[in-house]
Write a structure and sequence with these properties.
It contains 22 helices and five strands. With 509 residues, it is mainly α. Helix 10 packs parallel to helix 12, helix 15 packs across helix 16 and helix 15 crosses helix 17. The chain starts with 12 loop residues before the first helix and ends with a strand.
């Protein structure tokens, strides 16, 4: 008798795709998949090669104008950045040229390195079911994606925090040997030079370890911790005198960040409101959670779980928040926005652990609760990150505006540059080869707009005047446009994200 085997299912493209997806999300491969996704999102933004906006341009000018030894001097343009970061950017520029790709290479490398570092830290800090949640939040966070391709030090701050948890904290939680104490001390002492907020992480780590060993009367271990802390302290003191002191005395920076300085004393009703508001704002910026409620709930529950189950880890994660608040109250560091990006690993660890605790607590009474929380937690970060894959996160696209001017200008044209675009214009003027005397720099008068018409009136009688505006303050662009229309005739314009250039005939009215 002849028997026939059942027909095999067709190996269609759809089946192959489904099989590949199942492999990618398998428990043993899911972390690698998340890391690869996070890396692709970061590289995609880097490859857009968007224009340097004013803050980036200021750093780019410092890098271009100074030698490596001069980077140790106080910085121009109201900038503050760790010396180690600046040296790495300078080396990349010397190797690959003074262009956006080379200048942003260091932040990108830091952003990519942070992904596996976060995974390795998460495996040691939180339970296995919480690791994919924390890693997913870290990979998809819009702020972490964006700052991986911005010419600022903030992605490096995140990498430094993770490196300190792995290289300075965890080795000292076990029996401490002289070699461990020395290596942890050197690790912290070096990383301080690459990240300003590394000092807060080290302060938290040091406090936790000293108190633990004092309480346990581990005098020998305390002796080795003195070696470790001594290396950290000496390195920080030198770094403070060389790099940080000038930044903390810069009145322009202090005024800009004033809203993020904790009012003292913090215990009045109004000041407590500031404290609570600014803490929860971290979940939105830089936390990038969108719907902050599930994140806040997870963080609170995770904090309680940590405190009861692993007191050492709890304080290692929480104390840097306290130290940065103290520095904020002393007007030495800003508690908010991009300057607290380095706190996101701790925040995501707490959130992920809290979500797992809630899922376990409701498994019998409300089995879907855990899934609902995860969906709510990831909905906006995932939608934002994946929806922006083909969209550059632009701020001030001044390069195409100036390229348009360069391609269309005629002999005798005048170029008026709005004061807010100063540093970006200075950088791109050299990059695009514009003549040194090609423009008239406008006055800055945010407090008295009546001075702008008198400044523009100097251009009356000219048949072709270009007015370039970028880094706009409030509605000054509308004011400029209104006045230019009243004294002349618009001939052309080119507008991009955050930047615009007009061509006016001011010879008639």
């Amino acid at each position: 008798m002849v028997t026939c085997s059942p027909p095999r299912p067709l190996n269609t493209p759809g089946r192959r795709l489904a099989r590949s997806l199942r492999l990618l999300v398998a428990p043993d491969r899911l972390p690698l998949t998340i890391i690869m996704l996070g890396g692709l999102l970061r590289v995609a933004q880097y490859l857009f090669n968007r224009s340097l906006w004013i803050d980036e341009a200021a750093v780019a000018l410092i890098i271009r104008e100074r030698s490596i030894p001069q980077l140790f001097d106080p910085l121009d343009y109201n900038q503050a950045a760790p010396v180690g970061f600046l040296v790495l950017v300078k080396l990349a520029a010397l190797a690959f040229g003074y262009n956006e790709y080379a200048l942003r290479l260091t932040p990108l490398v830091c952003g990519l390195a942070a992904l596996p570092l976060f995974y390795l830290t998460a495996r040691r800090f939180i339970r296995p079911p919480a690791v994919p949640i924390a890693l997913g939040l870290f990979a998809l966070a819009e702020s972490l994606i964006y700052y991986s391709s911005e010419l600022k030090q903030y992605s490096g701050d995140v990498t430094a925090a993770l490196a300190l948890y792995l290289g300075a904290f965890l080795p000292l939680t076990r029996p401490v040997t002289p070699l461990k104490a020395l290596v942890a001390g050197l690790t912290g002492a070096i990383i301080i030079w690459f990240s300003h907020p590394a000092a807060f992480i080290l302060a938290g780590i040091g406090t936790v370890l000293v108190v633990r060993n004092l309480y346990g009367r581990a005098w020998k271990t305390l002796g080795w911790l003195v070696l470790t802390g001594g290396l950290w302290g000496v390195s920080f003191l030198i770094f403070y005198l060389v790099s940080v002191q000038a930044a903390t005395a810069n009145q322009g920076l202090l005024d800009f960040h004033n809203v993020f300085f904790m009012p003292l004393p913090p215990f009045t009703p109004a000041n407590l409101t500031w404290l609570v508001t600014n803490f929860f704002f971290i979940f939105e910026n830089p936390g990038s959670l969108g719907m902050a409620g599930p994140g806040i709930l997870g963080c609170l529950v995770g904090g309680v779980y940590y405190y009861k189950g692993n007191n050492l880890l709890f304080w290692a994660l929480i104390l840097p928040f306290g130290y940065i608040l103290l520095a904020s109250g002393l007007h030495k560091y800003s508690f908010g926005g991009r300057l607290v990006l380095f706190l996101l690993p701790a925040l995501f660890f707490l959130i992920a652990e809290g979500i797992v605790v809630l899922r376990e607590a409701t498994r019998n009474s409300f089995p879907a609760a855990g899934l609902i929380l995860v969906v709510l937690l990831f909905f906006q970060p995932a939608a934002g990150a994946l929806g922006a894959v083909g969209v550059p996160r632009t701020k001030e696209e001044i390069r195409p505006v100036l390229s348009y001017y360069q391609a269309n200008r005629q002999p005798g044209d005048q170029l008026y540059v709005y004061y807010g675009a100063d540093t970006a214009f200075r950088y791109y003027k050299a990059e695009l080869g514009l003549p040194p005397d090609c423009c008239i720099m406008g006055i800055g008068s945010r407090d008295d707009w009546n001075k702008y018409p008198a400044d523009l009136d100097k251009l009356r009688g000219k048949p072709r005047v270009w007015v370039m505006i970028s880094h706009i303050w409030e509605d000054e662009n509308i004011f400029f446009k209104y006045y230019l229309d009243s004294i002349g005739k618009k001939l052309d314009s080119r507008e991009t994200s955050g930047s615009i250039i007009y061509l006016y005939d001011l010879s008639h009215k």
